[in-house]
Amino acid sequence: MGALVAGVILDHSVLLVDNLGTASFQPSALSLLHKLRHSKLHLGISYAPALSDDKASFLKKMATQYSFDCFMLDGSSTDGALKGINFAWGDIGGTILYVVSNDKHGSFNQLSNLGWIIIAVDAEGAVPCDNSCTIYINKVEELPLTICRLNREAIGDSTVTVGYIMKPSREEDFAKRGAFPLCPTPNGLLFLPLTFGLPLLSQLQHVDIVLHKATDEILSVELSDSMESSGSITYTTGMQELQRYMEHHPGCFVIDPLDKIYPVLDRLKIQQILLGLEDLNKEGSHTIRAPHFLKVDNFNELDLVKLLPEANLSLPSIVKPQIACGVADAHSMAIVFRVQDFKDLSVPLPAVVQEYVDHSSTLFKIYVLGERVFYAVKKSIPNVDMLMKLSENNGVGPLLFDSLKSLPTTKEQSSSGDSLTTSCFDLDLVTEAAHWLARKLDLTIFGFDVVIQEGTTDHVIVDVNYLPSFKEVPNDISIPAFWEAIKSKFDLREK
Predict the structure, then answer these.
(1) How far apart are CA 167 and CA 97, in angstroms?
(2) φ and ψ at 79, to 5 degrees?
(3) Is 222 helix (H, G, I), strand (E, B) or coil?
(4) How far apart are CA 356 and CA 411, in angstroms?
(5) pTM attached to this predicted model
(6) C-alpha angle with apex 251: 248 to 257, nearest 5 degrees?
(7) How are beta strands 372-379 and 362-369 bridged, if at all?
(8) Which of 46, 55, 359, 371 is most exposed by smallest CB count within 10 Å?
(9) Residue 419 three-state SS
């Protein structure tokens, strides 16, 4: 059992494009810097004294940009450089990895006398790890897996490795808040970024849990007309490979199984599920409910005038695509003020017409992390009277918007009802609804939006989403809760 990896130094030979032109990084090196940047390890970039001034300056600039230290280190004489490293880092209480190209690694063998481990990259036919002071890997992209393996060997079987996959921008957002450290968390989790750029099998065989944001990898969604059955989702090639692996390896624990996320992709199905909230309501207490809704397959159908009141809907109403995420136009919406506004409405079909609730421009974002429930208050779309003015200013037509980019607002947006709305927020009721939804959907980490209707103070759930960022909750509270939700779900798995 060795020491945990506490520091990583990347030699310029694994970073720079090998040419005589302008200094630049290899694409794989840039990706690695992104993954290491928020790893909570000591990080450095080193270069040889013989390196040209422009390349040395480039390395220093990039080191500063990615919050790495920068050291000049010569394989033939390391004493001076080591003093600089010790001065910058002090006693870091663990092992330092020196990552260098295979053709240069022999020059740095003396570093092993300090307890460092040499990682030799681009070693043809290399095996991921051996018992010597040098580890040979084929690609620099394998470094996070190597760190994870070393840390797991150092800790022993008490640790749990979480392999996660999501789009780079989302991964960066979680990582910069400390969610995905490469060193162990206080509750014994190790996080490993999975990549489709390497064989999945070589990564997954070292993973206990797969954490995914599968909605980032959706190509198409086929909706189902049945409440009892789910539609089908077509994923990217990489996600399909991961899906096949999970199907053929029942011991691979997933947070959460891919079939569990389908309801949050279908606004009609989630609305139907939310109808069950009425079982939580008690006389003399606040009411929590779904908004009234109607599925529409054709905006020009003659019966729409009759169907709206039958669904307890009045105008204005908000119109949303039935597909909630994973496709390009899932967030193209409209607020419709007149029946004639439905004609040729440019919202993708099938669509869901949803009750528009006056809510004093106040939205409560609810985040469910296992047993923990958090909330944040955000500004939202104004009440109907102000929307009507906005519509009139735009030529008396529907208000079209993309809910991911910008919501309809007015300069006269009132805040007179904000304090009243906030004072009516019933956290106990919302928490009960959160636990009810967690059981109903069988999801571990999800979110939903609540608005409080003016006049009735009904708590109305208007949206549900999977693995939200929960960035409105302070990191020192949300990140430990995130880790605990993952670990608790793993501990409760079926033996």
Answers:
(1) 27
(2) -55, -50
(3) strand
(4) 20
(5) 0.90
(6) 75
(7) antiparallel
(8) 371
(9) helix
**Which residue bears the tokens 């409080």?**
452
Per residue in 310-359, pLDDT (tens digit) is: 999 999 999 999 999 877 888 999 999 988 889 889 999 999 999 999 99
Round to whole Å and give the CA distance between 350 and 347: 9
The dihedrals phi and psi of 490, each to the nearest 5 degrees, come to: -65, -40
Give how far Cα 478 sits from Cα of 45, 320, 367, 373, 374, Å: 32, 30, 9, 10, 8
**Under a CB-based contact definition with an 8 Å cutoff, are residues 324 and 215 in contact?**
no
The single-letter code of the amino acid at 141 is E
For residue 379, the one-letter residue type is K
Average pLDDT taken over every residue of the chain: 88
Environment class of 66 (CB within 10 Å of its CB; exposed 0-12, middle 13-18, buried 19+): middle
Cβ-contact 332, 348 below 8 angstroms: yes
Cα–Cα–Cα angle for 377, 466, 282, rounded to 5 degrees: 60
441-458: buried (b, 16+ CB within 10 Å) or exposed (e) per residue? bebbbbbbbbbbbbeeeb
Helix (H, G, I), strand (E, B) or coil at 282: coil
- 316/99 Cα distance (integer angstroms): 61
pLDDT per residue over 71-86, tens digit each? 988 766 666 667 878 8
Give Rg (Cα) of the chain: 27
